[in-house]
Write a structure and sequence with these properties.
Oligomer: homodimer
Distance between the termini of chain A: 81 Å
Largest interface: A-B, 123 and 123 residues
Structural class of chain A: mainly alpha
Strand content of chain A: 5-15%
């Protein structure tokens, strides 16, 4: 690394990727396998997304099994499927031999059911059992995330014996820093830190140096809850146990980071009514298909707002100024409600909140809306009264603003909390529902006030 | 753990917290210190946020230094400051002796400048140097996140010697799984996995088993970029080096998770124009103060929309139906634009995108808006034409919808990209700017079309 500092990390990377592709084109297996060692599989997988068919075939043909295994783990779903199509079952099983069980399960999950069955049937009985079990868990739960590549040792083992086991199993595990301590019933009774094992006396038992307080989850636990626990307790892995406290697997922190990223993407997209599967790489028809459903819901809320206005057409016909000013009320309330919405959805995502017992919070958000409404109402009222030279129009807009901003605060808190209580994603198109409420009520309140004070407006 | 499964993890926790507070009230130091071992410091810190002054004082008086150190690391800023107020400088220095340098720096950063200076002056020269250096880095950069508690060894060391060093330094480090390998100039030349060290021959050199491809950052690197690298390469720590490749510190994955959580909260809140410091615990005046600035910006955009309508008052006066239908155009376009906005902001946060070279993407989003606009325009046009029994009104709303949804797609992509290019947070109130654009242009386009076709509407 020392002498390469003249080039940036990116430049070196690009150079190596080009050399690697060149070696494949020349069918130089030795060179390709050697160059592979100098590229991070994550970067290679990224570059391969743009490769032509021919080069991918070469890659599968020339690279060693272990390297293919590593690359498959890092490849995105599309590339994974492409590569697997080029590999026959016996080769694939050899490659699986170099992979963690949870990664094998992820790959199997992306395959057609026929191919998946073929592969599972070809596995050794022991492996088949674990894989089938792991495939049974929902992808979004602790069971779907966990790996079986951990070190679990009996607490009665001496430190010396434990260390020998660790040296033996270590290379095949995802985590070595934490050793899971079991009793004779295979129940999880604690964790031991490798640091403590390294400095303890060879004759101490593992139990004597282990930590008995363990944060654990069950296989059914939702991945979002798992990620909150890992983040809260700064864990590098969290064990998954069954009801009888028997250790089933562990979830490592790198998978948790992926979960956190995924959940946040989901929150942000769903808030606006976009399917969580949409990315900037989605094609136009895909994007349209994923957004139209919520726009249709929006069409309904928009027409409700329109009907609210329509029922006051005779009032507007007499005072056209109402038409230009009513949108100020709804526009500001909509955005004000969205402010509340984002604070509440964020708290829900961080696990700080639930509907039960949150009436105080809802009232507080309504109060914030009220205060913001008074401020904005005064500003708007004064400006409108001056522009239209009509004191009463200013008063009407002030009153409507205060009421509607309070409603916006209330709805901004209520909508996500209710969605959550209904076991829906609290972000699910809540912005569309919110502006529906603030538009319909905003127009209604403003125009009702206008009708009452109509004589003063003419 | 085995026999406690009758109680849930939460119940056990609550029981222990009560016992602990009880021991403090009785000033039973031995009992309190013993009970402390059975509560996770994260949970204790959380419970302590609700404790009265008196109990906190007791806690500081009765608990051992090492335990106080642990708790201070987990406490939130408010609790930290409260506890530190109850500790004198000499005690605090003893407590710092049990803490990681990066945590000490975080605490010092929260103190008044006087107290901070006093404490730094009282430190030993070596420690003072490191702390002052760390305090010099911006909180949001790699330098501000890094810790100096890592294991770095010379590559020429034999595995046997390395293992002895690891046993010696290990207990004081945050990470033991990865050993950083240096050359004689203290430059980072690779990393060694503890697994490989454990199984290698005692006489091998560390260099011979180390991985030379290291992903690293510089101390000035922004924390968001650091978190993207850690997440992309599934790292458990990332080294921080200076321009000469000399290792300065490492950032561990638990701090990265905090960064990711923080950055996402920021994105979601700023999108709606809420200060990133707002939480559900903010008081009403705090919330109001943090939201009003962007509502004021919104007031301006709302008045711009209002002026657009006002300039067509003579048209509306003749066809009042326009007043009720124009809001359908702006409402749908606003939400459609927000869909694009959320996809783009999410991609920016995941580091997948920048303004340069993204014109294709911007056009694609405009195209999605156009197609969605055609669908929604047909629906709205047909319904409106039927309700008002006027074919031309339907055509006008169709035309306005198509144009404005396309503009919404364009703006939804452009606004965050431009904010990013201006080195602003791409989420910064972009929703408010977006609805500003879609409202003003939506009203303008719809009412302009209406003016052109006015004879057919009467």
């Amino acid at each position: 690394m020392g002498q390469e500092t003249k080039y940036s990390q990116e430049e070196i990377l690009e150079l190596r990727q080009t050399q690697f592709a060149e070696a494949l084109r020349k069918a130089d297996a030795a060179k390709a396998n050697e160059l592979y060692e100098h590229i991070h599989p994550v970067d290679l997988a990224e570059a391969m997304e743009d490769w032509e068919e021919e080069l991918l075939s070469r890659f599968c043909g020339l690279l060693e099994d272990e390297k293919l295994a590593e690359l498959l783990e890092e490849a995105d779903e599309k590339l994974q499927v492409e590569l697997i199509h080029k590999l026959d079952n016996s080769r694939l099983l050899k490659i699986f031999g170099f992979m963690q069980k949870d990664d094998i399960v992820d790959i199997l999950g992306n395959l057609r059911i026929n191919r998946r069955k073929q592969l599972i049937d070809l596995m050794r009985a022991g492996e088949r059992k674990i894989i089938t079990e792991l495939l049974g868990y929902d992808e979004d739960t602790a069971g779907g995330l966990m790996t079986t590549a951990y070190i679990a040792l009996n607490g009665q083992l001496t430190v010396g014996a434990a260390l020998r086991k660790i040296k033996e199993i270590g290379p095949k595990t995802e985590l070595i820093e934490t050793i899971f301590v079991l009793n004779h019933q295979k129940q999880l009774v604690g964790t031991a830190d490798l640091r403590d094992i390294l400095i303890a006396n060879d004759t101490d038992t593992l139990s004597s140096i282990s930590e008995e307080q363990v944060i654990y989850v069950e296989p059914e636990t939702d991945q979002e809850e798992v990620s909150l626990l890992v983040s809260k307790y700064d864990l590098n892995a969290i064990p998954v146990v069954n009801k009888r406290q028997v250790l089933l697997g562990i979830i490592t922190v790198d998978d948790i980071i992926d979960v956190i990223m995924e959940e946040h993407t989901e929150d942000m997209l769903q808030l606006a009514g976009v399917s969580k599967e949409e990315t900037i790489d989605s094609t136009i028809p895909e994007s349209v298909r994923r957004r139209l459903p919520w726009l249709c819901v929006n069409l309904i809320t928009a027409f409700l707002g329109s009907f609210a206005i329509k029922s006051f057409e005779h009032v507007i016909a007499q005072v056209v100024a109402l038409s230009a000013t009513m949108t100020i009320v709804t526009g500001l309330s909509g955005n004000s409600g969205n402010q509340t919405l984002s604070v509440i959805i964020r708290s829900l995502a961080l696990g700080e909140l639930e509907l039960k017992g949150s009436w105080k919070l809802i009232l507080k958000q309504a109060a914030v809306g009220l205060v913001d409404g008074i401020f904005m109402g005064i500003c708007t009222g004064v400006i409108v009264a001056m522009i239209y030279d009509n004191f009463y129009l200013g008063c009407i807009i002030f009153g409507a603003m205060v009421c509607n901003m309070m409603i916006a605060g209330l709805s901004g808190a209520l909508i996500p909390l209710v969605l959550k209580a209904l076991k829906q994603d609290p972000a699910l198109a809540s912005s569309i529902f919110l502006t529906g409420v603030t538009d319909v009520l905003g127009f209604f309140i403003f125009l009702s006030l206008a009708r009452v004070f109509l004589p003063f407006l003419l």
